[in-house]
Predict the 3D structure of the following.
Amino acid sequence: MSRITTPIQIYKFLPKTNCGECGIVTCLAFAVSVIKQEKRLSDCPYLDKDTVAQYEGKIDRPVNMEGIREEQLKELKKAISQIDLPSRAELLGGRSTGETLVIRCLGKDFEIDRYGNVLSQCHTHAWFSLPLLDYVLHSRGEEISGRWVPFRELEKGATWSGLFEQRCEKPLKQIADAYSDLFEDLVRMFSGTSAFNKFNADISVVLYPLPKVPVLICYWKSEDDIESKLHVFFDDTAEKNLPVDSLFTLGTGIVRMLEKIMHRHTDGKSELS
């Protein structure tokens, strides 16, 4: 364990007696306080000195991702206000309404005004607004090639591939394993299309979260002792139309969206953690 990043990692070291001598009611609450840097490991009177010495300086405070996203959103909106939006409509596969730009995403229309505000009949989130505005600003308008590659094979994908697997592909596989109607819903609700014989997958669906950034989701069912698999592929032109960090945000955002769908379909009793 090189760095400590979660309360559970700290909790494993603790006596789990909930004695309260550290000033916190439970050991788990104490672990959370240590992660937040409100307490130190040495504040636990029963934690041995060797453990304290080994890990005291290796605890990472959790990153405030919401704050970071809000700052990114402000910067993107500022940049949007300085360009001629309607002039980019054709390049992006969108259309102009005069002063605004309309982009069709997952079968729904999203309108961007000259201040960078994203308007839609759907509820919008930062995870989607960020890639959308990034697409408006930086897409080269490269036409889709139809050649699918895994995230790690994108030009700058290698450095993000491990995180992409953890935050996108593994949770998506959990959803597909537990929720049998997932792929039907993708086609029905988000204008997805079934793609047959892609990488010999049992089920494969193509989504268009952005007009020139399609995503292919392939699922292989479990068979005998072989575990199920799920992989996400991008068109090999993806980075020409969206920076790799926004591709990552887009992928993880799709996961969040599908988790909410599954949550509704299971009456709030989702098997996912």
Notes: Confidence is low (pLDDT under 50) at residues 267-273.
